[in-house]
Here is the input.
Amino acid sequence: MADARVARTKIIANIQGVSSKEKGVGIPDFIANGSRIIYDGWLKADPESNGEEVTLPRCAKGEKLDCNP
Here is the structure.
């Protein structure tokens, strides 16, 4: 079976354009590290082999994220 292709990714989000780097702001940036599955390959046959890896959604730089379920 073909190898799975996985892209490591990092999402950094801030609240309404406010960055934690600005002085006096008490809201830190939200950072999530994980991966995105490009091609599932052998993961389709054995999804548990991905372990505790966090799968993040695809998003673009500057995209607004919806925090409501």
